[in-house]
Amino acid sequence: MNADVGLGSWPWRRARITPERIALTRDDRTLTYADLAARTERLAAALIGAGVRAGDRVAYLGPNDIETFESLFATGLLGGVFVPLNTRLSAREIAYMLDDCAARVLVVAPTHHELVAALPSVPGDLLVVALEAPTCPIACTGYEQFLGAGDDSAEVFPPVGLDDPCLILYTSGTTGKPKGAILTHGNVTFNTINQLAHVDVLSTDKSLCLAPMFHVSGLGQITLPTLFKGGSVQPVPRFDAGEVLAAIDRERITGFSAVPTILQMLCEHPDFAGTDLSSLRYIVYGGSPVLERVATAWLDRGVQLLQGYGMTEAAAGVYMAIPDGAAEHPVSVGFPHFYTDVALETGDHTTPITPGTTGELLVRGANLFAGYWNRDEDTAASFTADGWFRTGDVVATGEDGWARVVDRVKDIIISGGENIYPAEVEAVLTRHPGVASAAVVAIPDNQWGEVGLAYVVTTGDTNLDAETITSYLAEHLARYKIPKHFRFVTDLPRNATGKIQRAQLRELAATTPDTNPVTA
């Protein structure tokens, strides 16, 4: 197998097919595919000249930018492993990841120069390559100077195969230390093919890269499929709803991926009604179901919403809605991807997924990760004896085949022997006109074992109390599903991708006395 195989070679191959097309654009700077391929090769050669070899880790710390893509592709081209770091972490957390993956090179953007300077420890052999080096407060090499030292004409790059590691993406680490999921070139390639089977990405598309590239959806859902087809990608370094809406209008953006929180912020912005969205053909979203009023706002503007379901360990995609029927199934994740197998674990058995079944989702396929970095025990524990990956999510499949994610196995509330799915309760809660968002977690109860505690964020223009909400829920849910306790808060804790941090809410519940018990 030669170096033409895998993620690292994509800009090089595309440059031979459509060299004049714009690959990346950021503000007033653009790179054609030919430009991107040339800079990628020079950077790969410079990394080799600095002693980086196949299998070595190259970390990146900074917001989405053109240099992020150059670093990604250059690392892949030489057979290295790209490690994008979460820009919202502390210096101590970043130091842990650099040490855990034994990074040889750290490319750092000026937005994070001070954070790198605050690292409690830096490996002695770590080469720091800084964008805008004069502003970097630690010893470093300038990015453009470093790239210019690479001699692409003299370098012969090593073979890279589908089974070779391409990325290490650290999970959010809601419990314990974050784990680095190893994605191979084959994982990323087959995920891209899976996405293209579900979404009609065109070579003429212009996509926004909104989600941070340290998150698997930032790379896998729209960005890499667009580049694979020869379209144009505009990386967005910092989310601002007004600026994103202006970019959609000005640049005639055709698609992007986002979490539901972002979709809500966009449609609630004052400029939403006046923004020309006619170029926007699709939005892929995931992480949690979108609020009904948010989905309606986008659908009323003629924008197609496609919900996907996946995880870091699957290079992003496992399920995705299809255009035909998506509007009629607004909370459904659709159907499994083409090169992904799914099954259910029910008790001690693995069973096929058929219409009308519910259980913990199991996954395997060409897009499934190679394991956790230096975590053999964690890797083994995440698989069944016959090789299925345990997702920890409960999936229900309707009689028509459309699936929905019911909840996390660990988030299910077992109250008096009955299973309560917080996501189901939250979906009803957020349909109440005065509720902006909500999260339900389990707390101990002497009578029932566990009961639900609902954290509720109101819209601010209404006065709600526990009794009012309880009465509303009683119209839509069985009595045992209604939370027994309510807490009204101004916000919910979320991680970098917008997911609610339920572990924090459970900790808060255990340490804060309840002031809103109700009888339901």
Automatic annotation (TrEMBL):
GO molecular function, one term: acid-thiol ligase activity
Gene3D superfamilies in the record: 3.30.300.30, N-terminal domain of ligase-like
Ligase is among the record's keywords: yes
TM ranges: none
Domain AMP-binding enzyme C-terminal: 424-499
Residue stretches in coiled coil: none
Keywords: Ligase
Chain ranges of the AMP-dependent synthetase/ligase domain: 13-373
UniProt xrefs under SUPFAM superfamilies: Acetyl-CoA synthetase-like (SSF56801)
Keyword Ligase found: yes
Family from the record: Belongs to the ATP-dependent AMP-binding enzyme family.
Protein name: Fatty-acyl-CoA synthase
Originating organism: Rhodococcus koreensis
Lineage of producing organism: Bacteria, Bacillati, Actinomycetota, Actinomycetes, Mycobacteriales
